[in-house]
């Protein structure tokens, strides 16, 4: 084995061991910290200097994305006006392995006056940060993975992991669901799957071809061409859908009848009882119908409760919106 892999394996095993020790060291103060964040009336103001600050930014982002309002406050900038980002009702989560960072020591008195609770994530309970805190989350580690025991490595891994554990515990306690997550991630694949409805993606207006059941095949095909659509919705005098004429229907009808097919009634060529979808249905559910359900075309009429056409949903538009077939998501 190469020396590089020897060193890398040592680092990973040492950090994994430190995380295992941390998991078994969780106590009532962790429970109290979770309860504090669950009952939060304001936001979590996360702060840390240097490498701890980088970890703090990630923890703030994780909290915010899982339903706990959070922001990152840089200790140095806080002393020059950014302290106004913290307000009564907020809870401060301050990270420092030593608990003695000059910038944090200067900030702590003013920060404690601004927030309702201060939670410390530190490796030293008796540090300045530990003594100032209302609650302490102990992130002490046997040693850093750095061969000189200097560079923040194992300690920052412990902070990161404990921050994830805190965010997930709060998320679970609040009953945070996948639907809630999707609302905070509208541009992500989960957000699209859980939020986008058929009505958001369907083609309507000039892109919808609707003809009465009294017209000819020629008239229906003209409507399809004008709308640049894949099919025409055929309706009765009351505007209720009675069938669809697709490109495939037209081709098969012309092969069977030849030129006289132009003037035949559209009802002779159309597909009766086509697959339909309602506008308030999730787009992801509609995609599943395209792949495994009874849908026969690349376009499906969208109807209201009285079976009147509202639009047309196309497979192409679903894919363009990032709604992928179930088989693609499982690969």
Instruction: Give the total of beta strands.
Output: 12
Main sheet attributes: strand count, strand direction, barrel closure: 5 strands, parallel
Structural class: alpha/beta
Instruction: Give the number of helices.
Output: 16
The pLDDT mean sits at 88
Q: What is the ordering of alpha helices and beta strands?
A: HHEHEHEHEHEHHHHEHEEHHEEHEEHH
Poorly predicted residue ranges = none
What is the CATH architecture term of the largest domain?
A: 3-Layer(aba) Sandwich
Strand order of the largest sheet: 2-1-3-4-5
Radius of gyration computed on alpha carbons: 31 Å
Structural commentary:
With 331 residues, the protein is an alpha/beta fold. Strand 7 and strand 8 (241-246) form a beta hairpin. The chain has helices spanning 3-25, 28-38, 51-65, 75-78, 102-114, 128-132, 154-173, 178-184, 189-195, 198-201, 217-227, 247-257, 266-269, 283-292, 315-320, 326-329; strands spanning 44-48, 70-72, 91-96, 117-122, 135-138, 210-212, 231-235, 241-246, 271-272, 277-278, 299-303, 309-314.
Keywords:
16% strand, 47% helix, Rossmann fold, 2 domains, four-stranded mixed sheet, single chain, alpha/beta, five-stranded parallel sheet, 331 residues, CBS-domain
Brief write-up:
The chain is of the alpha/beta class and 331 residues long.
Helix and strand arrangement:
Blueprint lengths: L2 H23 L2 H11 L5 E5 L2 H15 L4 E3 L2 H4 L12 E6 L5 H13 L2 E6 L5 H5 L2 E4 L15 H20 L4 H7 L4 H7 L2 H4 L8 E3 L4 H11 L3 E5 L5 E6 H11 L8 H4 L1 E2 L4 E2 L4 H10 L6 E5 L5 E6 H6 L5 H4 L2
Parallel strand pairs: 1-2, 1-3, 3-4, 4-5, 6-7, 10-11
Antiparallel strand pairs: 7-8, 8-9, 11-12
Helix pairs in contact: 1-7, 2-7, 3-7, 8-9
């Amino acid at each position: 084995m190469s020396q590089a892999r020897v060193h890398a394996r040592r680092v990973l095993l040492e950090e994994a061991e430190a995380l295992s020790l941390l998991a078994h060291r969780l106590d009532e103060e962790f429970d109290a910290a979770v309860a504090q964040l669950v009952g939060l009336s304001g936001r979590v103001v996360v702060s840390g200097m240097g490498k701890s600050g980088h970890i703090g930014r990630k923890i703030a982002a994780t909290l915010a994305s899982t339903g706990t309002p959070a922001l990152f406050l840089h200790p140095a900038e806080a002393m020059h006006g950014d302290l106004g980002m913290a307000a009564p009702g907020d809870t401060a989560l301050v990270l420092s392995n030593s608990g003695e960072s000059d910038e944090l020591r200067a900030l702590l008195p003013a920060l404690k006056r601004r927030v309702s609770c201060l939670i410390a994530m530190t490796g030293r309970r008796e540090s300045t940060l530990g003594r100032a805190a209302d609650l302490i989350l102990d992130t002490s580690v046997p040693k850093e993975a750095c061969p000189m025991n200097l560079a923040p490595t194992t300690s920052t891994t412990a902070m990161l992991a404990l921050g994830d554990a805190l965010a997930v515990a709060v998320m679970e306690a609040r009953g945070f669901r996948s639907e809630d997550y999707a609302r905070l991630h509208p541009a992500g694949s989960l957000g699209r799957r859980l939020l986008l409805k058929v009505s958001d993606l369907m083609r309507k207006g000039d892109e919808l071809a609707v003809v009465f059941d009294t017209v000819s095949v020629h008239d229906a095909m003209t409507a399809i061409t004008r709308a640049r659509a894949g099919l025409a919705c055929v309706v009765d005098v009351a505007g209720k859908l009675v069938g669809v004429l697709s490109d495939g229907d037209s081709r098969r009808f012309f092969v069977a009848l030849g030129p006289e097919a132009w003037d035949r009634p559209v009802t002779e060529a159309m597909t009766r009882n086509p697959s339909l979808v309602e506008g308030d249905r999730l787009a992801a559910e509609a995609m599943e119908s395209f792949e495994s359900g009874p849908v026969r075309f690349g376009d499906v009429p969208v109807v209201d409760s009285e079976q009147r056409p509202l639009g047309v949903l196309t497979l192409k538009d679903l894919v363009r919106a990032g709604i992928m077939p179930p088989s693609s998501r499982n690969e």
